Amino acid sequence: MITPYADHMEEKSQTRRVLRNLRKLAPEGDERAGSHLLEELEKLEREGFGHIKPINVIASYTSYGNEPSTQGFNSTLLGRGVQILLPHLLEDNSLEWIDSKSGENLGIVGISLAQVVVVPALSVDASGIRIGQGGGSYDRALKLNSGWKVCLLHDGEIFEGDLPQEIHDQKVDAVATPTKLIRFS
Question: 3-state SS of the chain: helix, strand, coil percent to 5?
Fold first, then answer.
């Protein structure tokens, strides 16, 4: 159920705390979800899945701590000549996008260039609602992109039930774990 922001603020905060604690149990530097996503993207390119043919620009991020690692994923794509856009957090919690190779700042609208957006998350539910770190940065950025949006998660981080959802929350199209890719749309 979608509700106004204030109605679920505390519920989201509690859910986020629990998910952060569970994430601490995950292996640091685990690249399996990113590797699985690479395989899936290659299949999708071959099949001509929607706007994924060929992939020239991907918005990704630099993982840290116990997040599923994006380092190998990003490096492999750069080696294939794919342009990787990385986020830079601004003071107002908006994201601007930087070309990882040239360093060119593409601004807030840079995400609109990406055919695929790899989105960080603590968890995603069966409808594609994700819960992130709580700043709303990605929800604002995803509104500017019409590409395919996918989260990287560890196995066991797909939320059973419905995550608290607010009006501004943006859904993702898929989630990749080390063992599966689930499409929501």
Answer: 30, 25, 45
Residue 89 neighbours by CB under 8 Å, 6+ apart: 95, 135, 137
Residue type for position 138: Y
Highest mean pLDDT among 8-12, 19-23, 28-32, 135-139 belongs to 135-139
The domain tally of the chain equals 1
| Entry pTM | 0.85
- Rg (C-alpha) for the chain, rounded Å, is 16
Give the C-alpha separation, 98 to 88, whole Å. Answer: 7
- In Å, what is the CA distance from 83 to each residue of 57, 68, 101? 5, 21, 8
Range(s) of the domain holding residue 110 = 2-183
What contacts 5, CB < 8 A, 6 or more positions away?
A: 166, 167, 168
CATH for 72: 3.40.50.10420
Helix (H) or strand (E) holding 19: helix 5-23
- CB 95, CB 131: distance < 8 Å: no
